[in-house]
Write a structure and sequence with these properties.
binds zinc ion, alpha/beta, 12 helices, 409 residues, eight-stranded mixed β-sheet
Amino acid sequence: MLALTGGNLIDGTGSAPLTNATVLVNDLGHIESVGRPESIKLPPGCKLVDITGHTVLPGLIDCHDHLMSFGYDLLGRWGRSEPRTTRVMRVTKVMEETLLTGYTAIRDCGWLDTGYKQAVEQGLIPGPRLQVATSPLSPTQGTQDRSSPSGHHQPTPLDPNLPRGIADGVADVRAMVREVVRVGADFIKFFNTGFGRETQSGTTRSYDLEEIKALVDEAHVHGKKVACHAIGGPGLRDAIAAGVDSIEHGCLLGSEPDLLKMMADKNIYLVPTLTVFTFHAAQGNPHAKAEAKDFRLKHIDTVQKALSAGVTVVAGTDAGAWEHGNSARELELLVQAGMTPMQALVAATGWAAGCLGMDDQIGTIETGKLADLIVVDGDPLADIALLQDKERIRLVMKEGQVYLDRVSG
Ligand SMILES: [Zn+2]
């Protein structure tokens, strides 16, 4: 057994912090008990780790990542920018680095195959707990379609563990969901609009309502949640009407209050991914930057109205569409968008675990949960940005196993 003693506890439920808390972790990697020292009986031989002056909180969860991606140029998407082995090594390095920044769970929203998840589970490589979408779905010409604008298709053979992801019509959509489930997807991701409002592609609609209903039904039959990429417009509306489980981005929801109400009523999560839009707002020509600034104001308005409407807003970075390694920036951006620091922490822990459907196992520091937790130097409620300082991440534990320890010395 191992006990963390003397630290401030933020347990991920949103409850007020507990000072001088003890967290007892058993040899099965679960939290045995948590509370004031006088309420916890430490077993003989228990290893003590004094974390006085530090904060212990649940391991952070990124609800929207792309570990396999390093930018979205066509050659990269075709897998031709570097040999596959180099890419595998690069991804495993990012996985370890991301774990050491305090992220113990990641929901990968596209193009990571199940081999990475198996490698982590089998202890071959250190990395966060993974949920993978494998291939996202879209119709022909949608965002999953890797053909060039001139109609050239991907020249290399497809990896059989990453289905093509392109399906048109109700029957083929159902078949593609089954194919993605067959290769081990933990959830189904689909694109129902394009990306940016500036090209209007963000307000189009990829699948029609019947196709989306079939997709959601087939996924749910297999016990898989559905994550839908949608920026705004009819593609967003139809996805919510069809009962997806989360909206990814959803930037223009603020102008459609009835949709926010539907999301709250149906318990549909919102993953705004502020980091990726903030990154791209700093790119491009002056006109694009000005438009991105206007778009960002709408995005922030959406987060605030979603919170007011009772929608559960969770932290997701869209890393891979920008870079990797600073995922906790999302928490700072959520605070800038109007969340309290405590809400931002819960958005990346307790609520995030709900988005993954794993809130019975991770996301909070409570008796019986898996011991996924981190210790940080200082108080993230006073300074949410400290989570981005790698030196201040002092301990990272996943299922009781310590991957980083700067506390014991
Ligand atoms: Zn994404």
